[in-house]
TrEMBL record:
Family the UniProt entry places it in: Belongs to the cyclophilin-type PPIase family. PPIL3 subfamily.
Pfam families referenced in this protein's UniProt entry, alphabetically: Pro_isomerase
Keywords from the named record: Isomerase, Rotamase
Transmembrane helix is among the record's keywords: no
Domain PPIase cyclophilin-type: 40-206
Protein name: Peptidyl-prolyl cis-trans isomerase
Location of region: Disordered: 1-38
Gene Ontology annotations for the cellular component aspect, listed alphabetically: catalytic step 2 spliceosome
Organism: Pseudovirgaria hyperparasitica
EC number(s) stated in the UniProt entry for this protein: 5.2.1.8
Biased composition regions of type Basic residues, renumbered to the chain: 1-14
GO molecular function, one term: peptidyl-prolyl cis-trans isomerase activity
Length: 213
């Protein structure tokens, strides 16, 4: 699953960009259902707030996959400094090109498409470092893959479903664990943004899922 890289980043010296701590935090919509998840990565933990009320189908899929262990040991297979980190393909896929969802139906040993529709909301934008959004292959092709922005990416507004934000691990939250996003942004990558060493989401902890059961 590919994202359009901004033109000014095509010639970035990958793995050597210093993140800008002055970038403002992503906006959080006002609602009562805001479960938190903790991504346990090789670089440290990243805590996310999930926007359940704004994008219920996307949130339900993500939280259910987290709870089922679907993201355990999934590679962070794309890291583009100044743009995004991408993950979420099943750990069993060596090329990190596939995607799954809880909406996949299996009949007579034949699986239907794993994709589900976009939930684009004008108020949820890629306007900050730490925005969490769905990766896709085009309109209405959401599954398990998602990305986190390293910087504002307004050209993705209207194309990708924003469903959460980083609330801990971005370096500006006063947490002693520091800037996990910054450490990931500095991982050495090749010319296509692929980490030269294996970097994974080791597991996910879900805190108080209001959509469960």
């Amino acid at each position: 699953m590919r994202l359009v890289v901004p033109h000014h980043l095509h010639h970035v010296s990958h793995g050597k960009l210093t993140p800008n701590p002055s970038l403002h935090k992503p906006h959080s919509p006002t609602h009562s259902l805001s479960p938190k998840t903790q991504l346990h990565t090789d670089a440290g933990d990243i805590k996310l707030e999930i926007f359940c009320e704004a994008v219920p189908q996307t949130a339900e899929n993500f939280l259910a996959l987290c709870a089922s262990g679907a993201y355990n040991h999934t590679p962070i297979h794309r890291l583009i400094p100044g743009f995004i980190l991408q993950t979420g393909s099943p750990a069993t896929d060596p090329k990190s090109k596939s995607s799954v969802s809880i909406y996949t139906n299996t009949n007579n040993n034949t699986s239907t498409s794993p994709f589900f529709p976009d939930e684009i909301r004008p108020t949820l934008r890629h306007n900050a470092r730490g925005v969490v959004s769905m990766a896709n292959k085009g309109p209405n092709t959401n599954g398990s893959q998602f990305f986190i922005t390293f910087a504002p990416a307004p050209h993705l507004d209207g194309r990708n479903t924003v469903f959460g934000r980083v609330i801990q691990g971005a370096g500006d939250d006063g947490d002693g664990d520091g800037d996990v996003l910054g450490r990931l942004e500095r991982v050495e990558v090749d010319g296509k943004g692929r980490p030269r060493g294996r970097v994974v989401v080791k597991g996910v902890t879900v805190h108080a899922n209001p959509l469960a059961g």
